[in-house]
Structures are given as C-alpha cells and as structure tokens.
Amino acid sequence: MSWQRTADAVVIGGGMMGMATAYYLAKLGMKDVVLLEKNTVASGATGRCAAAFRSTWGGELNIILGKACIDKYEHLSEELGMDIGLYQNGYLFIAYSDEQLENFRKCIKLQNSLGVPSRMLSHDEAKELCPGINLNGTKGFYWHKRDGHADPMLTNFAHQEAAKREGVVIHKFTDVTGFKMTEGAVKGVCTDKGDIDTNIVINAAGAWSGRVAALAGLSIPVHGERHEIFATEPVEFGVCPTFVMSYDPDFYMQQRPHGSIIAGCGPSRYRKEAAPFNDYEMGHSWNFLEHMTGIMNKVLPRTKGIRVVRQWSGMYDITPDMQPVIGEAEEMKGFWMNVSGSRGFMFGPVAGEMVAEQIILGKTSLPIEKFHWSRYARGEFLVDTAIA
Ligand SMILES: Cc1cc2nc3c(=O)[nH]c(=O)nc-3n(C[C@H](O)[C@H](O)[C@H](O)COP(=O)(O)OP(=O)(O)OC[C@H]3O[C@@H](n4cnc5c(N)ncnc54)[C@H](O)[C@@H]3O)c2cc1C
C-alpha cells in the first residue's frame, strides 16, 4: 500500500478501540483517515480477551455506556456487514459472602433505575441457567439476560473491513516512534516507515498508550498488566451456557457455543510475587493454570478431567481508577486518547463512535467527558463497585 504524507486524522492501534474509532471517523464523513498498527490487527489485548460485554456495572456512567454497548452489539453484524459471533445468554454473578450479596442488591437497584432489568436469582433458577454449577458455599446470584459475548477476532476484523470500505487506509507492521509538534499542538506522526502530517492523532494503543503519549511528552497514567486465560477442549454444551463471574474469589468462566470453556482471573490471585509495574511480558504460567483449573473444577465439578488445550495472556490497559481515559490533551491540541480502562472489547464500538462524534461534531450523544484524565490531577477517581 502506498504511503501518503498527509492525513485528516491518524489513529494509532489496530485493536477494538482504534479500529472502531477509525471506522466511525470515516463513517461520519472524515475523508482521509489512516490507522497505524505496529503488529497485526487484533494482536494486542483485543485478540486475547474473553470478549464479553455487559451493562451490569456498579457506577451510573458505566451502566449507561454498558447499555449503549449492548444496543450496539445487538446490531453490529448488520451494521458492519459481517458475522461477529454474537452470543447472548447473560452474565451470572455469584456471591460467596453476605457482603457481596449486599453489593449485588445495590448494583441491581442502580441498574434497574437506569433501565437495565437485572435481577436476583434463586439457587434453582441459577442451576437451571447454568446446569453445571456447584451451589455449595454460594450465598446468592444475579443475572442480566442481554449481557453476552462475541468473537473478538471476527468483531475486530468486521470493523477493519467496514473501515476499509469507508476509505480508511490501514498500515500494519508500522511502529509509531514519535510525533511532530509545534508549541501546544500535534502536527504529525513519525513511524519506522515514514512520517504523516496531520492535525489530529487518536492514541488507541491500549496498554501501550501511556508509552505512546510519552513520545509526545505527555504523562498520561496508562500501563499494562498481564492477565492470563485458558480454553479447554470442547465438552457437551450446557455446562455453563451463561457467562459466570465472581469478585471474590475472582474468576470468570464462559462456555463458547462450540463447547470449549474459557476461564480467567486477575494476576494477584496466582502470582507469587507482585507483578512489576509496566510488565509487558506476554508469557503464561503454571501458577495460573493450577490455580484456575482448581477454581473451575470447584465451580463446575463436571469439568474435572477435561483438558486445557490452550493458555495465553494479554495486556490489560490499566488506569488509576480502572476507568476509561478519553479526550483531547489540554496541553497538546489535536492529540486524543481513547483508552478503555480494561473493557475495550465491549466498550470499543461505543467509545470509537463517541470520540469520532466529539472530533467531528464537537459534541457526543453519550456523556463521556467525565472520562478525561484531568480528573486525576483534581484527585477525582470514578468509583464502580462492579469491578473485580
Ligand atoms: C485475558 C483478558 C481477558 C479480557 N476480557 C475482556 C472481556 O471479556 N471484555 C472486555 O471488554 N475486555 C476484556 N479484556 C480487556 C480488553 O481486551 C482490552 O481492554 C481491549 O482489547 C483494549 O483494546 P485496545 O484497542 O485499546 O487495545 P489493544 O487491543 O491492545 O490494541 C492496541 C494496539 O496498539 C498497538 N500499538 C502499541 N504501540 C504502538 C505503536 N507505537 N505504534 C503502532 N501501534 C502500536 C498494539 O500492537 C495493539 O495492537 C480482556 C483482556 C485480557 C488480557
């Protein structure tokens, strides 16, 4: 693909956040949009994630946006003209303590008040939804039917193809190495393949976006944290046909429609030593495998003896309050951030559209302005009690 020296906007990162941003910029009428990706599309966290989406959050903003994500996911295959492997059978949250149960009740109240019809389930109802589940030690359950998951590769690829149809130019294996700047404004992007002059840059480099921002002299608190995950051999569908999640112990499990069970948890649960800050090493560990298979066997006893066939890791894009970092840098006109705070699969399409609206229309149809990272300098952190 020939190299163009100028663009109306350059998006950095070919994961869900970047690809959706590029697609919506072009769809909303921007002519010359270029996306740069240092590896292949979906090679970052997007291609390695559990690809679930939910509106069952514990903070108002996340519930509103989560609901918008579901509305979007339900029509994404039609919009993008490709199957995205959508599967909706809800998130089933399990409480193992009275404290968690109380948190569930509060979350449900807030969710219901914002139009998300989540509800508590009896043990019998939970068993009916998830026949393989072990009820021992559980205190209660809640569920929301429209939560679900999709195929991360298909979804990212569908955005890529739709973006290309809208005229977006995508350069893979192109590493952003710096920026052209005048005082207070971005003027271009430098890469290992050449430079592109532009007045608008959108940094959607996920876990690496703090590093990319640093190339422009900006200190924006995003770093990577390695999270591991595995997939089992396919077993008869119906062991856990809903997405199952608990905050303590921290785990999630889902059975894909072809029978394989995917399971993961946060690193603090199995790493013997604290992960070094900015740990970008994508290995995977025996500790995780041992810890996670133990939990899976307890929660879903029918999985005892089945084989784990793949194990891998990916980088969570971590921010100080585990919430998105979105907006234009106050000290660098034209330099935008679009970082999800570790929910970029579900959030990507909506965040991409909102950032495109903000850039092109100067306003957004959903309230994303609270996600600007200037909140940290004011000592403000967004609180959500539904994050593991
Ligand atoms: C195990 C695991 C499970 C998860 N489960 C879920 C889930 O169920 N639901 C959910 O919503 N989220 C989940 N997440 C989080 C989610 O995957 C991420 O938040 C999301 O993929 C981030 O998307 P992104 O586009 O911002 O980043 P990425 O997909 O990481 O893409 C960023 C891209 O930027 C590129 N890049 C970096 N530096 C440069 C540079 N200098 N030049 C050019 N390109 C560059 C990278 O190569 C990368 O491809 C999970 C993550 C992991 C690891």
Describe the structure.
The protein is an alpha/beta fold and 388 residues long. The chain has 2 domains: 9-47 and 153-222 and 321-377, 3-Layer(bba) Sandwich (FAD/NAD(P)-binding domain), CATH 3.50.50; 91-145 and 224-318, D-Amino Acid Oxidase, Chain A, domain 2, CATH 3.30.9. Helix content is 29%, strand content 24%. It has 9 helices and 19 strands. Strands 5-6-4-14-15-16-13-17 form an 8-stranded mixed beta sheet, sandwiched between helices. A 6-stranded mixed beta sheet has the order 8-2-1-12-19-18, sandwiched between helices. A hairpin with a 2-residue loop joins strand 9 (176-182) and strand 10 (185-191). Helix 1 runs parallel beside helix 5 (152-165), helix 1 runs parallel beside helix 8 and helix 2 packs across helix 8 (344-361). The longest helix has 21 residues, at 60-80. It starts with 8 loop residues before the first strand and ends in an 11-residue tail after the last helix. The mean pLDDT is 95. The structure holds flavin-adenine dinucleotide. Residues 12-18, 36-39, 43-46, 48-52, 175-176, 204-208, 212, 227, 229, 264, 314, 316-317, 340, 342-346 line the site of flavin-adenine dinucleotide.
Highlighted features:
alpha/beta, FAD/NAD(P)-binding domain, D-Amino Acid Oxidase, Chain A, domain 2, 2 domains, 8-stranded mixed sheet, 19 strands, 29% helix, binds flavin-adenine dinucleotide
- Provide the CATH superfamily of the largest domain: FAD/NAD(P)-binding domain
Number of domains: 2
| Series of H and E elements | EHEEHEHEHEEHEEEEEHEEEEHEEEHH
Approximate helicity band: 25-40%
Mean pLDDT: 95
User: If strands are numbered along the chain, what order do they take across the biggest sheet?
Assistant: 5-6-4-14-15-16-13-17
| Class per helix and strand makeup | alpha/beta
